[in-house]
Hints:
Layout: E1 6-17, E2 20-32, E3 36-40, H1 47-54, E4 62-65, E5 68-71, E6 74-75, H2 81-87, E7 92-95, H3 109-118, H4 125-138, H5 144-148, H6 157-169, E8 175-179, H7 187-203, E9 207-212, H8 215-221, E10 224-229, E11 232-238, H9 248-255
Parallel strand pairs: 3-9, 3-10, 7-8, 8-9
Antiparallel strand pairs: 1-2, 1-4, 1-5, 5-6, 10-11
Helix pairs in contact: 3-4, 3-6, 4-6, 6-7
Family: Belongs to the ABC transporter superfamily.
Protein name: ABC-type dipeptide transporter
Enzyme class: translocase
Amino acid sequence: MSTPKxxxxxxxxxxxxxxxxxxxVRDVSFSLGQEKLAIVGESxxxxxxxxxxxxxxxxxxxxxxxxxxxxGDVDLxxxxxxxxxxxxxxxxxxxxxxxxxxxNPVVKVGEQIAEAxxxxxxxxxxxxxxxxxxxxxxxxxxxxxxxxxxxxxxxSGGMGQRIMIAMMVITNPExxxxxxxxxALDVSVRQQVLSVLEELVVEQQMGLIFxxxxxxxxRNYCDxxxxxxxxxxxxSLAACDLQYAEHPYTRGLLAALPSMDNRRARLxxxxxxxxxxxx
Length: 279
């Protein structure tokens, strides 16, 4: 792998509430190059927390520590708020869960994308509009001029996802963090959205962190997989090698997946070992 876009070594995230401390992420380490890296696991495993930590999007009660959290030449751990404002959206973009609902309901979608562009580029309103129309075409939206003037409630779920992708990518970021961006979509629309992301990763030489709980999806879509359990990375392997996973947690997740080829009367229940929390 060439020089990584992001390098994380021993990331820990704790949330403090009075005297209570919740250790949400424990000693997570990984590097990201020009690739599609999946972070998978059950709800509450710490997947989204890792992604938000890279952009320092946690509340003030969060304590983020690491041996290293490097983005190119930037030390993310030591970067102040002013430095992070230049990185968020411009160099690292994040697509939140159910992204359509992140749109402002009373502002036309085209104007919202234009605002994202103007926040990081010196350009006129007309130049921003042309840039938005080109980006809407790039994410395979038909009749971009019509869609530009729609409000969020007037677009479908799949179109809303693509609009949010356009907003996140219009600034030409080096890295995209996609937090379950297709979880609410049907299979056909999901494939369209994934294809759009794939094209952008290749064309713009980006790195993609794809947060998901869908092992079948990441097996066929991503390059590498980090498997998280209770805030820890318990296994890291190539996506195409998921069937050869060694950790019992990963094998348990795979065994619980339904299969059209191997019908079972009952899916197995994942048996958790307390030792997974300490090793």
